[in-house]
């Protein structure tokens, strides 16, 4: 199981949201 720092996790969340927004 990977452990991410809060900064990295937040960046991933933003990235996923952008991907979903552009996907639909």
TrEMBL record:
<feature type="compositionally biased region" description="Basic and acidic residues">
    <location>
        <begin position="13"/>
        <end position="24"/>
    </location>
</feature>
<feature type="region of interest" description="Disordered">
    <location>
        <begin position="1"/>
        <end position="24"/>
    </location>
</feature>
<protein>
    <submittedName>
        <fullName>Uncharacterized protein</fullName>
    </submittedName>
</protein>
């Amino acid at each position: 199981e990977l452990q991410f720092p809060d900064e990295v996790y937040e960046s991933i969340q933003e990235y996923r949201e952008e991907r979903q927004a552009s996907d639909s």
